[in-house]
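so my prof wants the structure for this chain in the tokens format not the other one, which i didnt know existed until like an hour ago. anyway here's the sequence
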Amino acid sequence: MSQHKTQNLQVSFRAPNAVNDQSSPTQGNPQPEFRWCEPIDAKNIDPELPPLTAVRESLPIGFIELRSSLPETIAEADNSFVLSILEQKAPTALTAQEAKDAILSQCYFRAARQLYSSMTEDERYRCRLLQGIFYDTTPIPSFLNNAIAMIGHFRCEFGEVRIRHAEVLLRRWVVIGLETGNELQTGEKLTRLMLSQAVFRDRSSKILVNSLIEERVKRISKSSFKVKSHAGLLRVFHPLLACNEDGLNRVSENYPYHLEMRRLIMLHRMTHFEWRTAETIAGVPIQIVLDYLGVRLVVLSDEELYRCFTFALRRYWADYKSLVEEAFEVAEPVATGFGNACQTVSSDDLQATFALPLSDQDISMGFMYNPAVKFEFKPRFCAYSKNTGKEMRTARLQKEYGELRR
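here's what i got, hopefully its the right format
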């Protein structure tokens, strides 16, 4: 369509569906790259074949996305029970409520500790300034430990499953725990809902933002709009743009969402170094661009997060620790080095459900956490490259063909 004809076009369009709903990863159309896969059996590999990365190294079969509110789900499973016990021990109802909030705050910190214990060496190195949270062993109510032990990279009957964006999740849990204990020093009022979608000025957050941008641009490209021309109404789709300089140059002002797409692609092209200091994108505050993705930038470094954590810990020891230990049986928080999710409860091609393994003693004590409601994980599994099996078969056929020629 020529340029002089597009100037007077009347455009109507439908807004694309919202994205970044991590609590419902199956919402929307599933991406074709997410498929169930079976790990390669090392016993069936010919030792004379050249080593393949996906075979010789311990790679995960996929990733699981955990909700940022999972520690709160764990802590408040028996909310009324916990509060009633505290009211019997605390001098006032206000103190009991504050102690319950302190337990919730500690649950976020201990979930972060358990997650850190299961991280890979590379992930731990990038979170090394927060390792003091791992070494803190302040006792917590023992009934929380079983549920917290689920968290982290874990192994199931299909192979190793890792937490997606574990470093971002670790920092989110720390900052939500600080907000719960009123120890967050950001200069602005941030709710727990905002912090559940927090991103930080670090490499792992930039990787998460880039993936959200790619999903958003792809979703906008799938949206349609109507163009009124001399032939009538035409339904037109956005061109699928890459998040690079060529895609940026192809963003047309005649399309809806052109400003959003331009800003998102510019943010995607930003280097990790620029991400640490950037305040604006094309003259627009960076938070306005992040609002397209449904995330919130928290300008706190790891040093500041850990300093706030130490303040919160001192307050807990001074005001609530003795009351909590008087009301409940306490134990050292878990740090198992791996997640303790049980075997698959149900699975299909796109998702699997894991549940908390309850012992008979737990059930007799009344900790009836419902696996189908309270601790249901819905992971997205990313399979190995399909070329891996093809390369193995090709190499084996080449070897057999060579032996026949002899």
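also thought this was worth mentioning. The CA atoms of residues 19 and 216 lie 7 Å apart.
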